[in-house]
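Methods — Computational structure assignment.
A single polypeptide chain was analysed. Its primary sequence is given first, followed by the predicted tertiary structure written as structure tokens.
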Amino acid sequence: MTKHRGTTEEKRALDAYIKLMRAAETVTANAQRHLARAGLTTSQFGVLEALFHLGPLCQRDLGRKILKSSGNITTVIDNLQKRGLVERRPSAEDRRFVAVHLTAAGETLIRELFPRHAAGIVSELGALTPQEQEELGRLCRKLGRRQG
């Protein structure tokens, strides 16, 4: 509960925000412990997961998928490329277009990690009933689609 002495509206919103952020941080930390053991950041895992499920993508599209800026996504991909998990390939039709692809090592790693990742999330969200999980999803989508 917030200790802010503002209006009822401010206190209610701040209290909800604090609970949302604490819950997100706790669930994320618990569900993603396996990523640290694999030497991956959340963003790096997000890139591997997107490429695994969607196929090759350009950096801009990857950045949009995992909600990272163009500068940040470049660093994430650079680091994955240094580890031999992804590679950049220019398009045969338009050399200005460069797609990011999983390497064999990247695909092996994401195939190994993704089931543990999914199981961790299922475990963490198991504190909620199926209906509560659906309601949480609906509310988060509503918040996420709101224009500032």
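Note: The beta strands are 57-58, 86-90, 98-102.
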